[in-house]
């Protein structure tokens, strides 16, 4: 799922699956479609 977040008055789009952030919603959605990292072991 892509979540919208605001930081320093800039809107970012974050892939909830892996935590990657994008400044473009379509980029985030395209990434999410290919993101299968559903168990990010580096986030503890
Ligand atoms: Zn991702």
Could you characterize the architecture of this molecule?
This protein has 44 residues and is of the alpha+beta class. The protein has one helix and three strands. Strands 1-2-3 form a three-stranded antiparallel sheet. Strand 1 (2-7) and strand 2 form a beta hairpin. The longest helix has 10 residues, at 25-34. The radius of gyration is 11 Å and the shape is globular. The model has no long low-confidence stretch (mean pLDDT 87). The site of zinc ion has 8 residues, from helix 1. This is C2H2-type domain-containing protein. Residues 13-40 form the C2H2-type domain. It comes from Haloarcula sebkhae.
Which structural traits does this protein have?
alpha+beta; DUF7128; 44 residues; three-stranded antiparallel sheet; binds zinc ion; 32% strand; Znf_C2H2_type
Describe the sheet with the most strands. 3 strands, antiparallel
Ligands bound, unique = zinc ion
The neighbouring-strand order within the major sheet is: 1-2-3
Portion in strands: 25-35%
Question: Please, how many helices?
Answer: 1
Rg, Cα atoms, Å: 11 Å
Helix content: 10-25%
In one word, what is the shape? globular
Cα distance spanning the termini? 19 Å
């Amino acid at each position: 799922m892509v979540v919208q977040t605001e930081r320093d008055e800039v809107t970012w789009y974050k892939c909830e699956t892996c935590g990657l952030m994008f400044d473009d919603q379509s980029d985030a959605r395209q990434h999410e479609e290919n993101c299968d990292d559903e168990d990010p072991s580096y986030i503890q």
